[in-house]
Amino acid sequence: MTKYSKPNVWRFMIVLIIAGCATFKTTLYDQSKLKAVTSWHIDFSYETGEIEEKVTSEKEAEVKVITTGHSPRDLQLRDDIFFHLKDKYRIPVVKDVNVASGFISIHPVHFYLGGFKSLDVTFYDRENNLIARIRVKNGDRRATFKEDDEFAEYCADAIAGLILTK
User: What CATH number does the domain containing 80 carry?
Assistant: First the structure.
């Protein structure tokens, strides 16, 4: 057999899949507070915005902050995670933050040319105490990259794994 025979190709593919798959790392800070949460609200960690600075002829700076809102891709990620948690895992997630006893804060990071690079997920209780944190990393951009819907489901699986281990 040559070095490019089918067994070598399969070994290479297996190594690629193992080395470049999406991963997540969970850090649990307070198990008792996690157990006490009866319903969750999921939203973004930060509001998006732009800062514009103008300098007048008198060399005075004028700063203007513009809120632009989240991208459709980020909104879809949040909604997909919400419905995966609700429908697939039967986790009590609610749209009204005032009803929830826990808060899931998400911060998506994008690759420069599109797609999700990672998602930081932070869990808080009603008193804003830190409960846990998950960092979900997408696969390698060239090899095992997860498209938006697959990435959302993978993130929801990681979140549910933490919540259901109460």
Answer: 3.30.160
> Is residue 10 situated within a structural domain?
no
Structural domain that includes position 133:
22-163
Assessment of whether the complete model's pTM goes beyond 0.90: no
Residue 6 lies in a domain: no
Residue 63: band (very low, low, confident or very high) from pLDDT cuts 50, 70, 90: low
Three-state DSSP class for residue 79: helix
Give per-residue burial for 56-74: e unless 16+ CB within 10 Å, then b. eeeeeeeeeeeeeebeeeb
Q: In the structure, how many helices (H) and strands (E) does the chain have?
A: 4, 7
The string of DSSP codes covering 95-150 is S-TTT-SEEEEEEEEE-TTSSEEEEEEEEEETT--EEEEEEEEPPPTTTTPPPHHH
Structure tokens at 12: 């290479």
How many domains does the chain divide into? 1
